[in-house]
Amino acid sequence: MKKENFIVGRIKSIKYAFAGFFLLIRTEHAIISQLIIAGVFTGMGFYFGISREEWIWQILAIGLVLGTESLNTAIEKICDFIHPEYHQNIGTIKDVASGAVTFAALTALAVGALIYIPYFL
Ligand SMILES: Nc1ncnc2c1ncn2[C@@H]1O[C@H](COP(=O)(O)OP(=O)(O)OP(=O)(O)O)[C@@H](O)[C@H]1O
Q1: Mean pLDDT over all residues of the chain?
Q2: For residues 54 and 115, what is the distance between their CA atoms, to the nearest angstrom?
Q3: In a domain, 48, yes or no
Q4: Which of 67, 80, 92, 115 ranks highest by number of CB atoms within 10 Å?
Q5: Would the pLDDT of 61 be above 70?
Q6: 49: phi > 0 → left, psi -120 to 50 → alpha, else beta; which?
């Protein structure tokens, strides 16, 4: 098989990555709901006039949750593809993948609390 030109290969990878990105934000309810939450927090950021440093932490927290949720979605799709029927191991794999999202979400919750609680005091 002919080896692809480096630049062409990278451009194609970026194209596929964006195809996945748009697929996620158009079709995945978990991603859409987290994007709505991200939008609410972005609005709060502007409303309270949070600092540059707080914006950085908030953006990182949002990216962490959305990135983890996207990988969780990919794992769910692999599970459903390789074993659509009920299986205890598939259940455990999916639960563990969701557990990763919970880690990210709790981290984001802590970041959000540290940023916004002082504005309410
Ligand atoms: N094939 C299966 N075999 C065993 N248990 C399953 C199977 N599919 C799903 N489950 C169980 O149901 C839970 C939810 O699975 P599902 O694929 O619906 O994910 P979800 O988190 O509800 O999806 P979404 O992220 O789209 O909201 C899993 O965490 C697992 O415990």
Answers
A1: 96
A2: 6
A3: yes
A4: 115
A5: yes
A6: left
Count of structural domains within the chain: 1
Domain span at residue 106 reads: 6-120
ipTM for the predicted complex comes to: 0.91
Q: What pLDDT, in 10s, does the model give residues 1-17?
A: 667 799 999 999 999 99
List 4, 53, 54, 69, catalytic entry: 69
In a domain, 79, yes or no: yes
User: Over the stretch 84-119, which tens digit does the pLDDT of each residue have?
Assistant: 999 999 999 999 999 999 999 999 999 999 999 999
**54 has catalytic annotation:** no
Q: Is residue 109 part of a domain?
A: yes
C-alpha atoms less than 13 angstroms from C-alpha of 27 in its C-beta half-sphere: 10
Ligand 1 contacts CB of residue 32 (under 6 A): no
The reply to whether 1 falls in a domain is no
